[in-house]
Design a protein that fits this description.
Elements (H helix, E strand, L loop, with lengths): L2 E2 L2 E3 L9 H16 L6 H20 L6 E3 L4 E3 L1 H18 L10 H19 L4 H19 L5 H32 L13 H19 L6 H9 L2 H26 L4 H24 L4 H16 L1 H11 L4 H29 L16 H4 L1 H15 L5 H15 L3 H27 L11 H19 L3 H10 L4 E2 L1
Parallel strand pairs: 2-3
Antiparallel strand pairs: 1-5, 3-4
């Protein structure tokens, strides 16, 4: 039996929930102040790294039950805790590898990274649409600037395209929130929300889907992502394709699964169509490129298609009158698992590019890598196999649970389409592996970036460990339950 279990925390007790945000904010300002007296990028990176680790520790010691804080502006629960930790990991991912290419204004870069992460954590711990919007825009504005770092014509072009696309998506989100309020009479997300105006809610659904669709790079709102991921500095591309994308995806989970639970048929038809086109476009496009960075960008589009299958599962369960609570919790848990694996698969792949002495390498530039650097070639190969969903990697586990619940709700045809798309991806991932192991050595030098190499190898180890860590999904099932403001 599922029962509500939410407590409210007021006064001085609420401060303990804000400590991680305070740490990240203070560290950001310390870095800015330090920039006035020293230009040591290593000092900036060290402070940023340490503050991110400390924030993660503080989050882990917060009481694990569901608590409302500051007049319900913040809702601290296990679902939010999980994603907050993922966002901290995505920032940690690029803190040290960024030292390679961020040659100027390192203080601004690392301070911005911390401020953006603060916005991400705030978004993780709120069910209020106004707070979600403000925190999400704080993340977006910071990433516009991060995308311009490295100061080349290509990065500036990427940042400009990203900025103008972001302005358009923000407009759609604002209008969507206005119609949502008209329909529901509240900005607070929660169980058993009453619908006052269904036509307004349908308009809100369309506007919010377009707005957040740009941020997650869902087809056909995806083209900016190809240009921006390709044009940005490699570490920034890793961050944009993982942390920045996942914060939008997490918000979509809250908005479309909780806020639009009463519109199962409409949500199902819309997101199923988007998922099929997104995964198919990303995979088919990746087959024709010979540029490693563009391949990773197209692959990121395809991965977004797999992620949004969670909305097809939950909405179909509601529409078809199945056991919605049980299926929704399982589907959200599967999305949480896939999000974890995605950070290491995609983040590690983009960071790998910092080990090549060329900003945007072609396949031929990494040929023979297995003879130059066997460990690095093995690490990248594991990440590519995980992205393809090959067994013995976390990528297989993530796709297995997502596809399993498609079958569980009788969406066999959609599961077959998703599996076929995953099979298509095997061809272009194995093509990269073939170049590393069976082609003559390239004359392009490796930079021997220790931070980047270590990140790739650690990511490879993690995606393998996730496959064998069998208690993980039951744990995430419990975390997903807290999203609905209930305990089982």
């Amino acid at each position: 039996m599922i029962t509500e279990s939410i407590s409210t925390v007021t006064g001085i007790q609420s401060l303990q929930y804000l400590y991680p945000l305070i740490v990240l904010g203070i560290a950001g300002f310390v870095i800015l102040g330090l920039g006035l007296v020293t230009s040591s990028k290593r000092a900036y990176a060290g402070i940023a790294f340490g503050s991110l680790v400390l924030a993660a520790i503080l989050l882990l010691v917060i009481p694990q039950n569901t608590y409302n804080v500051l007049s319900d502006s913040f809702t601290f629960n296990q679902f939010g805790l999980y994603f907050a930790i993922l966002f901290l990991i995505s920032s940690l991912f690029i803190t040290l590898p960024s030292l390679k290419n961020i040659s100027a204004k390192g203080d601004i870069f690392y301070a911005l990274l911390l401020f953006v992460t603060t916005g991400m954590v705030v978004a993780a711990f709120t069910m209020n649409l106004i707070v979600l919007f403000i925190s999400f825009e704080a993340v977006s504005i910071g990433t516009y600037v991060l995308a311009a770092f490295h100061k080349t014509r290509r990065t500036l072009e990427a940042s400009t395209k990203y900025f103008f696309t972001g302005v358009v998506s923000t407009s759609f989100i604002i209008f969507g929130l206005a119609f949502f309020y008209q329909a529901m009479g509240t900005f607070q997300l929660g169980p058993a929300m009453a619908v006052a105006s269904k036509p307004a809610l349908l308009i809100a659904l369309l506007f919010l889907t377009i707005g957040f669709g740009f941020k997650v790079a869902i087809f056909p709102m995806h083209q900016w992502a190809i240009d921006t991921y390709y044009g940005s500095e490699n570490s920034v591309s890793a961050f944009l394709s993982t942390g920045s994308k996942l914060v939008a995806f997490m918000i979509m989970i809250k908005v479309f699964i909780i806020g639009f639970a009463s519109m199962g048929e409409d949500v199902f038809l819309l997101f199923t169509l988007l998922a099929v086109f997104t995964m198919t476009y990303g995979n088919i496009s990746a087959l024709s490129t010979t540029n490693v960075k563009k391949l990773f960008a197209y692959s990121s589009i395809a991965q977004a298609g797999y992620l949004i299958l969670v909305f097809s599962i939950t909405s179909y369960a509601m529409w078809s009158g199945q056991n919605y609570s049980f299926i929704a919790i399982n589907a959200v848990a599967a999305a949480m698992l896939y999000s974890l694996v995605y950070i290491f698969m995609k983040g590690g792949a983009f960071v790998f590019l910092n080990t090549v002495d060329k900003e945007s390498p072609e396949f031929s530039d990494i040929s023979g890598l297995a003879r130059k650097s066997p460990a690095l070639a093995m690490g990248l190969s594991i990440l590519l196999l995980a992205l393809a969903g090959i067994p013995f990697t976390g990528g297989f586990t993530g796709k297995f649970y997502m596809f399993l619940y498609l079958v569980d709700v009788k969406l066999w045809w959609l599961a077959i389409i998703a599996i076929l798309n995953s099979a298509i991806s095997v061809f272009y991932y194995f093509r990269v592996i073939m170049y590393m192991y069976w082609k003559p050595e390239s004359q392009v030098l490796m930079t021997r970036s220790r931070a980047a190499s270590a990140t790739v190898l650690i990511s490879a180890v993690v995606v393998v460990v996730i496959f064998f860590f069998f208690p993980l999904f039951p744990l995430l099932h419990g975390y997903a339950t807290s999203l609905f403001g209930v305990t089982g």
